[in-house]
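User: I've been trying to design a sequence by hand for this structure and keep getting stuck. Would you show me what you'd pick, starting by listing the structure so we're on the same page?

Assistant: Good idea, let's start from the same input. This is the structure you sent:
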């Protein structure tokens, strides 16, 4: 199976917020074959929240020095194309994110904003993993403890996973992958 661990950093939470960082890892047969970290400037007219900028640690001026969104998408698709035959409906990446609905929606909006309707050429829309929802389900089943919250940072502490710079997409996705692997170990023991 081809897995895509993916995280985005954005200028806010609205549908018109801009992706400014896309980071991830592509794992094939339990081996990471590529890590990537792509940055871009916000699209014209993007919603930009001051609190979001504070969270990601960038100013608008710093973000505007990055590459254009069109170039970022080309870079992303070039990476995807190394591992997926975009014309084979059975050869797709399965996305794993800590908050899958958010990252999927932001990536989908990013593609659409750039008039590219081919995200599904690379990513399986039917099969995905949200570690946040996985944690919640396992808490309900009594397999994982209920912690003070279900933020990625909290689960990293629980599983003793290093997360030095939360809200940097590359750091977050490294941590998400480790949390996912730890959850898999817990499930294996629970069998």
């Amino acid at each position: 199976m081809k897995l895509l661990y993916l995280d985005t950093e954005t200028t806010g939470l609205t549908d018109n917020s801009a992706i400014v960082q896309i980071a991830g890892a592509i794992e094939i047969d339990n081996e990471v074959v590529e890590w990537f970290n792509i940055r871009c400037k916000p699209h014209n007219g993007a919603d930009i929240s001051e609190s979001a900028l504070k969270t990601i640690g960038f100013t608008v001026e710093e973000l505007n020095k990055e590459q254009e969104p069109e170039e970022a998408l080309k870079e992303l698709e070039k990476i995807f194309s190394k591992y997926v035959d975009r014309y084979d409906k059975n050869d797709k990446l399965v996305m794993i994110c800590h908050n899958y609905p958010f990252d999927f929606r932001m990536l989908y909006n990013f593609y659409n904003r750039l008039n590219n309707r081919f995200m599904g050429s690379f990513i399986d829309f039917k099969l995905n993993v949200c570690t946040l929802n996985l944690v919640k389900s396992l808490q309900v089943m009594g397999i994982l403890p209920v912690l003070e919250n279900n933020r990625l940072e909290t689960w990293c502490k629980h599983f003793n996973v290093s997360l030095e710079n939360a809200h940097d997409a590359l750091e977050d996705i490294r941590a998400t992958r480790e949390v996912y692997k730890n959850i898999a170990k817990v499930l294996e023991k629970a069998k």
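That's my pick for every position. To get oriented when you compare it with your attempt: Helices lie at 50-56, 60-63, 69-83, 100-113, 131-140, 152-159, 169-190. The chain is about 40% helix and 20% strand.
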